[in-house]
Structure formats: C-alpha cells, structure tokens
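Forum: Protein Structure Q&A
Topic: Joint prediction for protein chains with partners

I've read a bunch of threads here and the consensus seems to be that you should model interacting components together rather than docking separate models afterwards. I'd like to see that in practice. Below is the full input, 158 residues plus whatever partners are listed. Could one of the regulars post the assembled result?
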Amino acid sequence: MRKSVFKGLFTMALVTLSSIASHALEVGEKAPSFEAPSTLGTIRLADYLGKKDVLLAFYLADFTPV
Amino acid sequence: MTAFQRDLKNFEKLNTQVLGVSSDSVATHQEFSEKYGLRFPLIADEKGKLATLYGRPGRAAFIIDKKGIVRFVHKGVPDNRVLLDELEKLRE
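Posted by a regular:
Agreed with the consensus. Here's the joint model:
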C-alpha cells in the first residue's frame, strides 16, 4: 500500500518535471528575456519593454513557404 | 515572413515590433531578407536557445506586451488579420 503511494508520488513528480521541461509558454506568463544576433544587430527583448509590443514569430526556415 | 513584410506598416501603426526567429544563421537570414525585402529583424537562433526558452513552440507567434507579458499565442501558420486584431485589442 505504502509502496504504491510512493510510486504514485514518484510518477507525479516525473510528469511535473517533464511538463516543466517541455512547457510551451502560455498567455498571461512572463515572456523569457533573451539576447540574440539578428540581421539588424543584437536583439534584446528588454529593449522593447515599456516602448513597444513585440510580435515574436517562430518559423521553420528561410526560403520555405510561409 | 513575406506576409509580415506586406503588413509591416499595419504592425508599425500599432506600435508593434515584428521579430522573426528561426535556426538559420545571420548570413542566411541576410540573404533571405535581401531577396524578399524584409525590413524587420530576423533572429538567428542557431542553437535553438530561444526556441527552448519559449517551450519549443514549432511554428508560432507570440504577442508580448510592453510589460513583457505574453498576451496571445498563435500556433501554426500566422494569420495577420488575427494578430492585428489582437494587437488592436491590447490598445482598448
């Protein structure tokens, strides 16, 4: 009985961990800050805070449709 | 990305910075931008760091407000009308 409880807790912990690891960002959450190279120099999310809204569009690759 | 360029003025009118992200290098992005006349930055996420930070979203667009909060997530092929509508809502 006790063993199965531990097993259950362990499974729950694993599920929680994996959901954190592959957690897709959702509405209402803070956008992770970043700094990355771009065609127009280094881009920092922080540079736009308080100034502009940002549309961050992930896409698959250049020279592909859409 | 060319669809964003076509509507870039409309995004700019809504005080929105468009940023494209893929795992291509800056050099490839530059070639791509020149060929299609893209005037907004394309981020080179070669190691996928940014994609990981945002939960490996695949093809998706995030609207982030001035406070840095995610206000809208559009999965799949982006639809400018939907995105512009959401940006307008933020202004209400």
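The CA atoms of residues 63 and 72 of chain B lie 5 Å apart.
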